[in-house]
Amino acid sequence: MAAPIRAALLQDRSLKEELLSTIQARRELGPAYEADLVESFVDRVDVELTRRIDERVASRRRGRDGRFTRGQRYALATLILGTPVVAVAGATADLEGILASWGGIVALNLFGFLDGLRRPRD
């Protein structure tokens, strides 16, 4: 994850310009202001990096179009459908029914997981 963010930061013209400005200011002001200039630049990079990471995390929580991702749909389906299925199976078939229900839930989630591995992300 760090490599794509690093590459994006290096391609950002505003950060390049800020770095060049910081270097030029250091040349003009001398070494007495070097620590302050570096700290100021690092703070700007930190703000930009934090913003980009927050955007990336938010885009992964939901699909790019704002819908639930495939994995989230499988999880919701097993929560919504699994609870009453296990309750009914437990009431009618005791432990064997509960185990069979959980086996189905595990199989559904395993299928969803394996299907997600086969599909490209973007």
Architecture overview:
The protein is mostly helical. The chain has two domains: 61 residues; 55 residues. Helices cover 85% and strands 0% of the residues. It has four helices and no strands.
Q: Gap between N and C termini, in Å?
A: 16 Å
- Beta content comes to under 5%
What is the global morphology?
A: rod-shaped
Largest sheet: none
Mind sketching the topology for me?
Layout: H1 2-11, H2 13-29, H3 34-61, H4 70-118
Helix pairs in contact: 2-3
In short:
By secondary structure, this protein is an all-alpha fold.
Give the key terms:
2 domains, mainly alpha
